[in-house]
Amino acid sequence: MSRHHKVAIAGSGLAALATAARLHEQGVKDIAIYANGLGGTPYIAAINFVLPENPYGDTPEQYAKDMLAAGYNIGNKELVKEMADATLRGYELLCRWGVTFAHNDDGSIKLRHVSGHTYPRSLCQTTNLIGVEIEKVMLPKLAEAGIEFHKHAVVVGLLKSEDGKIDGFTVIEDGGEPFNVYAPVVVASWGGVGNLLGTSTYPDDVKGNTLGMAKQAGASLVDLEFIEFEPMVMMSPAGAVGEPCPTAMLGEGGYLLNSDGERFLLEVRPQGEAGAPKSLINHEIWKQVAKGKGNPHGGIWVDLRHVDVNVLKAYPWFYNRLMQHGCDPNKELLEVGPMPHSFSGGIKVDRNYESDVKGLFAVGEACGGIHGACRCAGNAASQATLSGLLCAEGIMRTGELTREISERPVVYHRDDGVRARYLDELQRIAGKALGVYRNGQDLEAALKSVDEIINAPDTSRDDLTLQTALAISLIAKAALNRKESRGTHNRTDYPEASSEYEKEFVL
Ligand SMILES: Cc1cc2nc3c(=O)[nH]c(=O)nc-3n(C[C@H](O)[C@H](O)[C@H](O)COP(=O)(O)OP(=O)(O)OC[C@H]3O[C@@H](n4cnc5c(N)ncnc54)[C@H](O)[C@@H]3O)c2cc1C
Protein backbone atom coordinates (compact mmCIF):
# COMPACT_ATOMS: atom_id res chain seq x y z
CA MET A 1 0.00 0.00 0.00
CA SER A 2 1.09 3.59 -0.59
CA ARG A 3 -0.60 6.99 -0.78
CA HIS A 4 0.06 10.15 -2.77
CA HIS A 5 -0.76 13.74 -1.79
CA LYS A 6 0.23 17.23 -2.85
CA VAL A 7 1.08 18.15 0.75
CA ALA A 8 1.70 15.67 3.57
CA ILE A 9 1.83 17.17 7.05
CA ALA A 10 3.35 15.29 9.99
CA GLY A 11 1.50 16.37 13.15
CA SER A 12 -1.91 17.85 13.88
CA GLY A 13 -1.12 20.58 16.39
CA LEU A 14 -1.74 24.27 15.85
CA ALA A 15 1.17 24.67 13.41
CA ALA A 16 -0.22 21.89 11.21
CA LEU A 17 -3.76 23.29 11.33
CA ALA A 18 -2.61 26.83 10.47
CA THR A 19 -0.52 25.52 7.56
CA ALA A 20 -3.39 23.43 6.20
CA ALA A 21 -5.91 26.25 6.65
CA ARG A 22 -3.80 28.80 4.77
CA LEU A 23 -2.90 26.32 2.01
CA HIS A 24 -6.59 25.60 1.53
CA GLU A 25 -7.36 29.31 1.34
CA GLN A 26 -4.81 29.60 -1.46
CA GLY A 27 -6.55 26.87 -3.44
CA VAL A 28 -4.27 23.91 -2.71
CA LYS A 29 -6.09 20.58 -2.94
CA ASP A 30 -5.06 17.16 -1.64
CA ILE A 31 -3.60 18.05 1.75
CA ALA A 32 -3.28 15.22 4.29
CA ILE A 33 -2.43 15.36 7.97
CA TYR A 34 -0.82 12.32 9.66
CA ALA A 35 -0.53 12.34 13.46
CA ASN A 36 -0.82 10.25 16.55
CA GLY A 37 -2.41 12.82 18.89
CA LEU A 38 -2.85 16.56 19.31
CA GLY A 39 0.54 17.37 20.85
CA GLY A 40 0.94 20.39 23.13
CA THR A 41 -1.80 22.35 21.37
CA PRO A 42 -4.78 21.48 23.64
CA TYR A 43 -2.76 22.77 26.61
CA ILE A 44 -2.20 26.25 25.20
CA ALA A 45 -3.54 28.87 27.61
CA ALA A 46 -2.03 32.01 26.12
CA ILE A 47 -1.47 33.14 22.54
CA ASN A 48 -0.08 36.55 21.63
CA PHE A 49 -1.22 38.84 18.86
CA VAL A 50 -0.76 42.59 18.53
CA LEU A 51 -4.16 43.95 17.58
CA PRO A 52 -4.82 47.51 16.37
CA GLU A 53 -7.24 48.05 19.27
CA ASN A 54 -4.58 47.21 21.91
CA PRO A 55 -5.19 49.95 24.53
CA TYR A 56 -1.54 50.15 25.61
CA GLY A 57 -0.30 51.48 22.27
CA ASP A 58 1.35 48.18 21.40
CA THR A 59 2.99 47.80 17.97
CA PRO A 60 4.46 44.94 15.90
CA GLU A 61 7.83 46.71 16.25
CA GLN A 62 7.65 46.52 20.06
CA TYR A 63 6.56 42.90 19.80
CA ALA A 64 9.61 42.10 17.64
CA LYS A 65 11.88 43.90 20.13
CA ASP A 66 10.43 41.88 23.01
CA MET A 67 10.94 38.63 21.11
CA LEU A 68 14.56 39.40 20.36
CA ALA A 69 15.26 40.51 23.94
CA ALA A 70 13.64 37.37 25.41
CA GLY A 71 15.81 35.31 23.03
CA TYR A 72 18.94 37.07 24.35
CA ASN A 73 19.27 38.88 21.04
CA ILE A 74 20.48 35.89 19.09
CA GLY A 75 17.19 35.25 17.30
CA ASN A 76 16.81 35.57 13.54
CA LYS A 77 15.96 39.27 13.11
CA GLU A 78 14.47 38.80 9.65
CA LEU A 79 12.18 35.94 10.65
CA VAL A 80 11.20 37.65 13.90
CA LYS A 81 10.28 40.81 11.99
CA GLU A 82 8.19 38.82 9.51
CA MET A 83 6.48 37.02 12.35
CA ALA A 84 5.69 40.30 14.13
CA ASP A 85 4.51 41.94 10.91
CA ALA A 86 2.13 39.01 10.29
CA THR A 87 0.64 39.08 13.80
CA LEU A 88 -2.72 40.56 12.79
CA ARG A 89 -3.01 38.20 9.81
CA GLY A 90 -2.41 35.24 12.14
CA TYR A 91 -5.20 36.38 14.44
CA GLU A 92 -7.51 36.87 11.45
CA LEU A 93 -6.65 33.41 10.09
CA LEU A 94 -7.74 31.79 13.36
CA CYS A 95 -10.91 33.91 13.44
CA ARG A 96 -11.78 32.94 9.86
CA TRP A 97 -11.56 29.28 10.89
CA GLY A 98 -13.91 29.82 13.82
CA VAL A 99 -11.64 30.46 16.83
CA THR A 100 -13.09 32.89 19.36
CA PHE A 101 -11.33 34.69 22.20
CA ALA A 102 -12.47 35.98 25.58
CA HIS A 103 -13.78 39.55 25.89
CA ASN A 104 -14.10 41.92 28.84
CA ASP A 105 -17.50 43.13 30.08
CA ASP A 106 -17.10 46.34 28.01
CA GLY A 107 -16.74 44.29 24.83
CA SER A 108 -12.99 44.82 24.40
CA ILE A 109 -10.81 41.80 23.83
CA LYS A 110 -9.29 40.34 27.01
CA LEU A 111 -5.52 40.78 27.11
CA ARG A 112 -3.24 39.18 29.67
CA HIS A 113 0.29 40.20 30.57
CA VAL A 114 2.53 37.14 30.31
CA SER A 115 6.25 36.65 30.79
CA GLY A 116 8.67 38.56 28.57
CA HIS A 117 6.24 41.11 27.12
CA THR A 118 6.29 44.89 27.52
CA TYR A 119 2.51 45.09 27.24
CA PRO A 120 -0.47 42.81 27.82
CA ARG A 121 -1.01 41.19 24.40
CA SER A 122 -1.93 37.65 25.27
CA LEU A 123 -5.33 36.37 24.11
CA CYS A 124 -7.16 33.55 25.85
CA GLN A 125 -10.41 31.88 26.80
CA THR A 126 -11.57 32.10 30.41
CA THR A 127 -13.86 29.06 30.41
CA ASN A 128 -11.43 26.62 28.81
CA LEU A 129 -7.93 26.47 27.41
CA ILE A 130 -7.68 28.36 24.12
CA GLY A 131 -5.81 25.33 22.68
CA VAL A 132 -8.87 23.13 23.30
CA GLU A 133 -11.05 25.71 21.53
CA ILE A 134 -8.64 25.82 18.57
CA GLU A 135 -8.69 22.05 18.05
CA LYS A 136 -12.43 21.85 18.67
CA VAL A 137 -13.40 24.38 16.02
CA MET A 138 -10.62 24.04 13.45
CA LEU A 139 -10.44 20.24 13.07
CA PRO A 140 -14.03 19.78 11.85
CA LYS A 141 -13.89 22.85 9.61
CA LEU A 142 -10.67 21.66 7.97
CA ALA A 143 -12.13 18.19 7.51
CA GLU A 144 -15.22 19.78 5.94
CA ALA A 145 -12.93 21.70 3.59
CA GLY A 146 -11.52 18.39 2.35
CA ILE A 147 -8.30 18.13 4.37
CA GLU A 148 -7.63 14.45 5.07
CA PHE A 149 -6.93 13.50 8.70
CA HIS A 150 -5.13 10.29 9.64
CA LYS A 151 -5.45 10.37 13.41
CA HIS A 152 -3.63 7.21 14.46
CA ALA A 153 -0.58 7.51 12.26
CA VAL A 154 3.02 7.63 13.44
CA VAL A 155 5.61 8.98 11.01
CA VAL A 156 8.69 6.77 11.40
CA GLY A 157 11.08 8.14 8.76
CA LEU A 158 11.42 10.68 5.96
CA LEU A 159 11.82 9.59 2.33
CA LYS A 160 14.68 11.12 0.38
CA SER A 161 15.00 10.92 -3.39
CA GLU A 162 18.24 10.13 -5.20
CA ASP A 163 18.66 13.80 -6.06
CA GLY A 164 18.49 14.70 -2.35
CA LYS A 165 14.91 15.98 -2.04
CA ILE A 166 12.33 14.91 0.52
CA ASP A 167 9.33 13.40 -1.17
CA GLY A 168 7.30 11.80 1.57
CA PHE A 169 7.48 9.78 4.77
CA THR A 170 6.95 6.27 6.06
CA VAL A 171 3.95 5.81 8.33
CA ILE A 172 2.53 3.20 10.65
CA GLU A 173 -1.23 3.60 10.91
CA ASP A 174 -3.35 1.92 13.60
CA GLY A 175 -0.38 -0.23 14.58
CA GLY A 176 -0.38 -1.95 11.14
CA GLU A 177 2.35 -2.51 8.59
CA PRO A 178 4.49 0.48 7.59
CA PHE A 179 3.78 2.11 4.22
CA ASN A 180 5.03 5.08 2.24
CA VAL A 181 3.17 8.38 1.85
CA TYR A 182 4.45 10.41 -1.11
CA ALA A 183 4.20 14.17 -1.51
CA PRO A 184 6.37 16.85 -3.17
CA VAL A 185 5.79 19.02 -0.09
CA VAL A 186 6.30 17.54 3.36
CA VAL A 187 5.66 19.73 6.40
CA ALA A 188 7.25 18.72 9.70
CA SER A 189 4.92 19.97 12.43
CA TRP A 190 5.74 17.26 14.92
CA GLY A 191 6.39 19.49 17.93
CA GLY A 192 9.34 19.62 20.32
CA VAL A 193 11.71 17.39 22.25
CA GLY A 194 11.04 17.76 25.99
CA ASN A 195 10.08 14.12 26.48
CA LEU A 196 13.62 13.07 25.60
CA LEU A 197 14.49 14.20 29.13
CA GLY A 198 11.90 12.10 30.98
CA THR A 199 9.72 14.26 33.20
CA SER A 200 8.36 17.26 31.30
CA THR A 201 5.11 19.07 30.65
CA TYR A 202 4.86 17.48 27.16
CA PRO A 203 2.16 14.96 26.24
CA ASP A 204 3.26 11.42 25.31
CA ASP A 205 2.62 11.65 21.57
CA VAL A 206 5.50 14.14 21.13
CA LYS A 207 8.52 11.90 21.62
CA GLY A 208 11.36 14.04 20.27
CA ASN A 209 12.94 11.28 18.14
CA THR A 210 11.71 13.33 15.17
CA LEU A 211 14.75 15.58 15.60
CA GLY A 212 16.91 12.52 14.87
CA MET A 213 14.67 11.76 11.88
CA ALA A 214 15.34 15.23 10.46
CA LYS A 215 19.07 14.68 10.97
CA GLN A 216 18.90 11.33 9.15
CA ALA A 217 17.26 13.17 6.24
CA GLY A 218 20.20 15.59 6.13
CA ALA A 219 18.39 18.73 7.29
CA SER A 220 20.46 21.40 9.06
CA LEU A 221 19.44 21.83 12.69
CA VAL A 222 19.92 24.91 14.82
CA ASP A 223 19.90 26.16 18.45
CA LEU A 224 19.46 22.65 19.81
CA GLU A 225 20.70 23.55 23.29
CA PHE A 226 17.68 25.79 23.84
CA ILE A 227 15.18 23.45 25.44
CA GLU A 228 12.95 25.87 27.29
CA PHE A 229 12.30 25.25 30.96
CA GLU A 230 9.02 26.67 32.17
CA PRO A 231 9.90 28.34 35.49
CA MET A 232 6.71 27.83 37.51
CA VAL A 233 5.60 24.22 37.08
CA MET A 234 3.80 22.64 40.04
CA MET A 235 6.11 20.36 42.09
CA SER A 236 3.44 19.22 44.58
CA PRO A 237 0.86 17.91 45.48
CA ALA A 238 1.32 14.64 43.57
CA GLY A 239 -1.83 14.98 41.42
CA ALA A 240 -0.87 18.46 40.23
CA VAL A 241 2.82 17.83 39.49
CA GLY A 242 3.67 18.97 35.94
CA GLU A 243 0.84 21.53 35.69
CA PRO A 244 2.32 24.89 34.65
CA CYS A 245 1.33 27.78 36.92
CA PRO A 246 0.70 30.40 34.18
CA THR A 247 3.29 33.19 34.18
CA ALA A 248 0.24 35.40 33.64
CA MET A 249 -0.29 34.92 37.39
CA LEU A 250 2.61 37.32 37.96
CA GLY A 251 0.71 39.78 35.76
CA GLU A 252 -2.35 39.21 37.97
CA GLY A 253 -0.35 40.26 41.04
CA GLY A 254 1.26 36.97 42.14
CA TYR A 255 4.68 36.95 43.84
CA LEU A 256 7.63 34.58 43.82
CA LEU A 257 8.93 33.84 47.33
CA ASN A 258 11.98 32.09 48.78
CA SER A 259 12.03 30.13 52.04
CA ASP A 260 12.55 33.38 53.99
CA GLY A 261 9.37 34.77 52.44
CA GLU A 262 11.36 37.31 50.36
CA ARG A 263 10.19 38.51 46.93
CA PHE A 264 13.64 37.75 45.56
CA LEU A 265 12.93 38.80 41.96
CA LEU A 266 12.60 42.42 43.12
CA GLU A 267 16.33 42.47 43.88
CA VAL A 268 17.06 42.33 40.16
CA ARG A 269 13.76 43.64 38.81
CA PRO A 270 12.51 46.41 41.09
CA GLN A 271 9.59 47.21 38.78
CA GLY A 272 7.92 43.93 39.82
CA GLU A 273 7.39 40.34 38.77
CA ALA A 274 4.84 41.02 35.98
CA GLY A 275 6.28 40.40 32.52
CA ALA A 276 9.64 39.06 33.81
CA PRO A 277 11.23 36.83 31.16
CA LYS A 278 11.30 33.10 31.86
CA SER A 279 15.09 32.93 31.60
CA LEU A 280 15.52 35.63 34.24
CA ILE A 281 13.06 33.87 36.56
CA ASN A 282 14.92 30.57 36.12
CA HIS A 283 18.32 32.10 36.83
CA GLU A 284 16.99 33.80 39.96
CA ILE A 285 15.31 30.57 41.14
CA TRP A 286 18.65 28.84 40.70
CA LYS A 287 20.37 31.47 42.86
CA GLN A 288 17.81 30.98 45.64
CA VAL A 289 18.14 27.18 45.50
CA ALA A 290 21.96 27.50 45.54
CA LYS A 291 21.71 29.71 48.66
CA GLY A 292 19.59 27.08 50.40
CA LYS A 293 16.47 29.24 50.13
CA GLY A 294 14.56 26.95 47.78
CA ASN A 295 11.68 24.58 48.44
CA PRO A 296 12.25 20.89 49.34
CA HIS A 297 11.76 19.87 45.64
CA GLY A 298 14.43 22.21 44.25
CA GLY A 299 12.24 25.16 43.30
CA ILE A 300 10.61 28.12 45.09
CA TRP A 301 7.04 29.26 45.92
CA VAL A 302 4.38 31.27 44.17
CA ASP A 303 2.10 33.32 46.40
CA LEU A 304 -1.41 33.83 44.98
CA ARG A 305 -3.16 34.06 48.35
CA HIS A 306 -3.90 37.77 47.87
CA VAL A 307 -5.18 37.39 44.27
CA ASP A 308 -8.98 37.65 43.92
CA VAL A 309 -10.46 34.14 43.70
CA ASN A 310 -12.52 35.15 40.65
CA VAL A 311 -9.29 36.02 38.84
CA LEU A 312 -7.90 32.59 39.71
CA LYS A 313 -11.11 30.92 38.57
CA ALA A 314 -10.67 32.53 35.14
CA TYR A 315 -7.82 30.01 34.70
CA PRO A 316 -10.14 27.02 35.31
CA TRP A 317 -7.80 24.24 34.09
CA PHE A 318 -5.21 25.40 36.65
CA TYR A 319 -7.47 26.39 39.53
CA ASN A 320 -9.65 23.28 39.28
CA ARG A 321 -6.72 20.86 39.00
CA LEU A 322 -5.17 22.32 42.16
CA MET A 323 -8.45 22.31 44.07
CA GLN A 324 -9.18 18.72 42.98
CA HIS A 325 -5.89 17.68 44.53
CA GLY A 326 -6.42 19.44 47.82
CA CYS A 327 -4.38 22.56 47.13
CA ASP A 328 -6.20 25.89 47.47
CA PRO A 329 -4.13 28.64 45.80
CA ASN A 330 -6.07 31.25 47.80
CA LYS A 331 -4.99 29.68 51.07
CA GLU A 332 -1.53 28.20 50.58
CA LEU A 333 1.78 28.85 48.88
CA LEU A 334 2.44 26.83 45.71
CA GLU A 335 5.65 24.83 45.31
CA VAL A 336 6.87 25.44 41.76
CA GLY A 337 10.07 25.04 39.77
CA PRO A 338 11.47 24.72 36.24
CA MET A 339 10.55 21.79 33.93
CA PRO A 340 11.18 21.10 30.19
CA HIS A 341 8.26 22.70 28.37
CA SER A 342 9.09 23.78 24.84
CA PHE A 343 11.92 24.01 22.34
CA SER A 344 13.43 26.96 20.48
CA GLY A 345 15.77 24.78 18.45
CA GLY A 346 14.93 22.48 15.57
CA ILE A 347 15.03 22.36 11.80
CA LYS A 348 16.71 25.42 10.31
CA VAL A 349 14.37 27.18 7.89
CA ASP A 350 14.47 30.03 5.40
CA ARG A 351 11.81 32.71 4.81
CA ASN A 352 9.51 30.12 3.21
CA TYR A 353 9.94 27.86 6.26
CA GLU A 354 11.72 25.39 3.98
CA SER A 355 14.73 23.49 5.30
CA ASP A 356 17.93 23.19 3.30
CA VAL A 357 16.66 19.83 2.04
CA LYS A 358 14.23 20.70 -0.75
CA GLY A 359 10.67 19.56 -0.20
CA LEU A 360 10.96 19.52 3.61
CA PHE A 361 9.28 22.44 5.37
CA ALA A 362 9.06 22.89 9.14
CA VAL A 363 6.66 24.87 11.32
CA GLY A 364 5.84 25.42 15.00
CA GLU A 365 8.11 23.77 17.52
CA ALA A 366 9.63 21.56 14.82
CA CYS A 367 11.50 24.53 13.35
CA GLY A 368 14.23 26.40 15.17
CA GLY A 369 16.53 29.37 15.00
CA ILE A 370 13.84 32.07 15.08
CA HIS A 371 13.56 33.17 18.69
CA GLY A 372 17.12 32.60 19.84
CA ALA A 373 17.66 31.36 23.39
CA CYS A 374 14.05 31.59 24.60
CA ARG A 375 10.57 32.62 23.54
CA CYS A 376 8.33 35.05 25.38
CA ALA A 377 5.46 33.18 27.07
CA GLY A 378 2.52 32.58 24.73
CA ASN A 379 4.81 32.88 21.73
CA ALA A 380 5.06 29.16 21.02
CA ALA A 381 1.39 29.30 20.08
CA SER A 382 1.83 32.52 18.11
CA GLN A 383 4.76 31.01 16.30
CA ALA A 384 2.79 27.86 15.54
CA THR A 385 0.07 30.01 13.94
CA LEU A 386 2.34 32.45 12.14
CA SER A 387 4.91 29.94 10.91
CA GLY A 388 2.00 27.89 9.53
CA LEU A 389 0.60 30.93 7.76
CA LEU A 390 3.96 32.08 6.40
CA CYS A 391 5.00 28.54 5.42
CA ALA A 392 1.77 27.97 3.49
CA GLU A 393 2.44 31.20 1.58
CA GLY A 394 6.11 30.23 1.14
CA ILE A 395 5.17 26.83 -0.30
CA MET A 396 3.32 28.64 -3.09
CA ARG A 397 6.47 30.67 -3.91
CA THR A 398 8.81 27.67 -4.11
CA GLY A 399 7.01 25.86 -6.92
CA GLU A 400 7.62 22.50 -5.17
CA LEU A 401 3.96 21.45 -5.44
CA THR A 402 4.34 20.32 -9.05
CA ARG A 403 7.38 18.06 -8.52
CA GLU A 404 7.08 14.49 -9.81
CA ILE A 405 7.61 11.72 -7.25
CA SER A 406 8.69 8.13 -7.87
CA GLU A 407 7.83 5.28 -5.53
CA ARG A 408 10.34 3.06 -3.67
CA PRO A 409 10.31 0.12 -1.25
CA VAL A 410 9.44 0.67 2.41
CA VAL A 411 12.45 0.66 4.72
CA TYR A 412 11.71 0.36 8.43
CA HIS A 413 13.54 -1.27 11.35
CA ARG A 414 11.95 -2.26 14.63
CA ASP A 415 13.46 -4.36 17.39
CA ASP A 416 11.67 -4.35 20.74
CA GLY A 417 14.70 -5.85 22.47
CA VAL A 418 16.82 -2.88 21.39
CA ARG A 419 14.14 -0.49 22.63
CA ALA A 420 13.99 -2.24 25.99
CA ARG A 421 17.77 -2.16 26.25
CA TYR A 422 18.38 1.49 25.42
CA LEU A 423 15.35 3.81 25.51
CA ASP A 424 15.04 4.17 29.30
CA GLU A 425 18.80 4.47 29.60
CA LEU A 426 18.85 7.24 26.97
CA GLN A 427 16.14 9.13 28.85
CA ARG A 428 18.06 8.79 32.10
CA ILE A 429 21.24 10.14 30.50
CA ALA A 430 19.41 13.07 28.89
CA GLY A 431 17.48 13.88 32.06
CA LYS A 432 20.68 14.08 34.08
CA ALA A 433 22.84 16.08 31.66
CA LEU A 434 20.36 18.25 29.76
CA GLY A 435 18.15 19.49 32.59
CA VAL A 436 17.86 23.07 33.79
CA TYR A 437 21.24 22.81 35.56
CA ARG A 438 24.04 21.70 33.23
CA ASN A 439 27.79 21.40 33.42
CA GLY A 440 30.54 20.48 30.99
CA GLN A 441 31.59 17.33 32.82
CA ASP A 442 28.10 15.77 32.78
CA LEU A 443 27.54 16.83 29.18
CA GLU A 444 30.79 15.23 28.04
CA ALA A 445 29.94 12.02 29.91
CA ALA A 446 26.44 12.01 28.41
CA LEU A 447 27.77 12.54 24.91
CA LYS A 448 30.20 9.68 25.31
CA SER A 449 27.53 7.28 26.62
CA VAL A 450 24.99 8.23 23.94
CA ASP A 451 27.55 7.95 21.16
CA GLU A 452 28.42 4.45 22.43
CA ILE A 453 24.74 3.54 22.09
CA ILE A 454 24.59 5.06 18.59
CA ASN A 455 27.62 3.01 17.55
CA ALA A 456 26.54 -0.24 19.26
CA PRO A 457 26.05 -2.97 16.61
CA ASP A 458 22.41 -3.65 17.55
CA THR A 459 21.13 -0.02 17.64
CA SER A 460 20.67 0.22 13.88
CA ARG A 461 18.09 -2.58 14.18
CA ASP A 462 15.59 -0.11 15.68
CA ASP A 463 14.81 3.25 14.04
CA LEU A 464 13.12 4.78 17.10
CA THR A 465 16.13 4.03 19.32
CA LEU A 466 18.64 5.33 16.78
CA GLN A 467 16.63 8.52 16.15
CA THR A 468 16.23 9.10 19.90
CA ALA A 469 19.95 8.62 20.52
CA LEU A 470 20.84 10.91 17.60
CA ALA A 471 18.53 13.63 18.93
CA ILE A 472 20.03 13.47 22.44
CA SER A 473 23.58 13.40 21.11
CA LEU A 474 22.97 16.49 18.97
CA ILE A 475 21.38 18.42 21.84
CA ALA A 476 24.22 17.42 24.20
CA LYS A 477 26.83 18.56 21.65
CA ALA A 478 25.12 21.92 21.23
CA ALA A 479 24.75 22.31 25.01
CA LEU A 480 28.42 21.52 25.54
CA ASN A 481 29.41 24.17 23.00
CA ARG A 482 27.22 26.83 24.64
CA LYS A 483 29.64 27.86 27.38
CA GLU A 484 27.38 30.37 29.08
CA SER A 485 24.07 30.51 30.90
CA ARG A 486 22.13 32.03 28.03
CA GLY A 487 18.55 30.78 27.79
CA THR A 488 16.31 29.20 30.40
CA HIS A 489 18.90 26.63 31.49
CA ASN A 490 21.96 27.33 33.67
CA ARG A 491 25.53 26.25 32.97
CA THR A 492 26.69 25.84 36.54
CA ASP A 493 30.33 25.85 35.39
CA TYR A 494 29.78 29.23 33.66
CA PRO A 495 27.48 30.96 36.16
CA GLU A 496 28.54 34.53 35.55
CA ALA A 497 27.96 34.59 31.83
CA SER A 498 24.24 35.10 32.22
CA SER A 499 24.36 38.46 33.94
CA GLU A 500 25.65 40.32 30.90
CA TYR A 501 22.57 39.32 28.89
CA GLU A 502 20.14 39.82 31.71
CA LYS A 503 20.92 43.50 32.21
CA GLU A 504 18.59 44.48 29.41
CA PHE A 505 15.66 42.69 31.03
CA VAL A 506 15.90 44.42 34.34
CA LEU A 507 16.37 48.06 33.39
C1 LIG B 1 1.22 21.82 29.34
C2 LIG B 1 1.60 22.78 28.25
C3 LIG B 1 1.14 24.09 28.29
C4 LIG B 1 1.50 24.99 27.29
N1 LIG B 1 1.02 26.26 27.34
C5 LIG B 1 1.35 27.12 26.36
C6 LIG B 1 0.77 28.42 26.32
O1 LIG B 1 -0.04 28.79 27.16
N2 LIG B 1 1.16 29.26 25.32
C7 LIG B 1 2.05 28.88 24.37
O2 LIG B 1 2.37 29.68 23.50
N3 LIG B 1 2.57 27.64 24.35
C8 LIG B 1 2.23 26.76 25.32
N4 LIG B 1 2.75 25.50 25.29
C9 LIG B 1 3.61 25.13 24.16
C10 LIG B 1 2.71 24.83 22.95
O3 LIG B 1 1.73 23.89 23.36
C11 LIG B 1 3.50 24.25 21.80
O4 LIG B 1 4.64 25.00 21.55
C12 LIG B 1 2.60 24.25 20.56
O5 LIG B 1 1.53 23.37 20.77
C13 LIG B 1 3.41 23.87 19.36
O6 LIG B 1 2.53 23.60 18.32
P1 LIG B 1 2.98 22.56 17.23
O7 LIG B 1 1.83 22.41 16.31
O8 LIG B 1 4.29 22.93 16.70
O9 LIG B 1 3.23 21.19 18.05
P2 LIG B 1 2.24 20.34 18.94
O10 LIG B 1 1.02 21.07 19.30
O11 LIG B 1 3.04 19.78 20.05
O12 LIG B 1 1.80 19.18 17.97
C14 LIG B 1 2.71 18.19 17.55
C15 LIG B 1 1.97 17.21 16.68
O13 LIG B 1 2.90 16.30 16.10
C16 LIG B 1 2.42 14.96 16.31
N5 LIG B 1 3.57 14.05 16.27
C17 LIG B 1 4.70 14.06 17.02
N6 LIG B 1 5.52 13.08 16.60
C18 LIG B 1 4.91 12.47 15.56
C19 LIG B 1 5.25 11.40 14.71
N7 LIG B 1 6.40 10.73 14.82
N8 LIG B 1 4.36 11.04 13.77
C20 LIG B 1 3.18 11.67 13.62
N9 LIG B 1 2.80 12.72 14.39
C21 LIG B 1 3.66 13.10 15.35
C22 LIG B 1 1.69 15.03 17.63
O14 LIG B 1 0.82 13.94 17.79
C23 LIG B 1 0.95 16.35 17.43
O15 LIG B 1 -0.17 16.17 16.61
C24 LIG B 1 2.37 24.58 26.24
C25 LIG B 1 2.82 23.27 26.19
C26 LIG B 1 2.44 22.36 27.17
C27 LIG B 1 2.93 20.95 27.06
Layout of helices and strands:
Layout (H helix, E strand, L loop, with lengths): L1 E3 L2 E4 L3 H12 L5 E4 L12 E2 L11 H11 L6 H9 L1 H10 L25 E2 L6 H15 L3 E3 L2 E8 L5 E8 L5 E4 L2 E4 L21 H7 L4 E2 L4 E8 L13 H4 L3 E3 L20 H13 L9 E4 L5 H5 L2 H9 L9 E10 L2 E3 L11 E3 L4 E2 L10 H20 L17 H18 L3 E2 L1 H16 L7 H19 L8 E2 L5 H10 L1
Parallel strand pairs: 1-9, 2-3, 2-10, 3-6, 10-17, 16-18, 19-20
Antiparallel strand pairs: 4-5, 7-8, 8-9, 11-16, 12-15, 13-14, 14-15
Give a verbal description of the structure.
This protein folds into 3 domains: 2-153 and 344-402, FAD/NAD(P)-binding domain; 231-340, Alpha-Beta Complex (Flavocytochrome C3, Chain A, domain 1); 416-503, Fumarate reductase/succinate dehydrogenase flavoprotein-like, C-terminal domain (Methane Monooxygenase Hydroxylase, Chain G, domain 1, Up-down Bundle). The protein is 35% helix and 16% strand. The chain contains 15 helices and 20 strands. The protein has helices spanning 14-25, 60-70, 77-85, 87-96, 130-144, 210-216, 248-251, 278-290, 309-313, 316-324, 379-398, 416-433, 440-455, 463-481, 497-506, and strands at 2-4, 7-10, 31-34, 47-48, 122-123, 148-150, 153-160, 166-173, 179-182, 185-188, 221-222, 227-234, 255-257, 300-303, 334-343, 346-348, 360-362, 367-368, 437-438, 490-491. A 5-stranded parallel β-sheet has the order 6-3-2-10-17, covered by helices on one side. The mean pLDDT is 94. Residues 10-16, 34-41, 43-47, 154-155, 189-191, 201-202, 205-207, 210, 244, 341-342, 364-366, 378-381, 384 line the site of flavin-adenine dinucleotide (FAD). The site of flavin-adenine dinucleotide (FAD) has 42 residues, from helix 1, strand 7, strand 15 and helix 11.
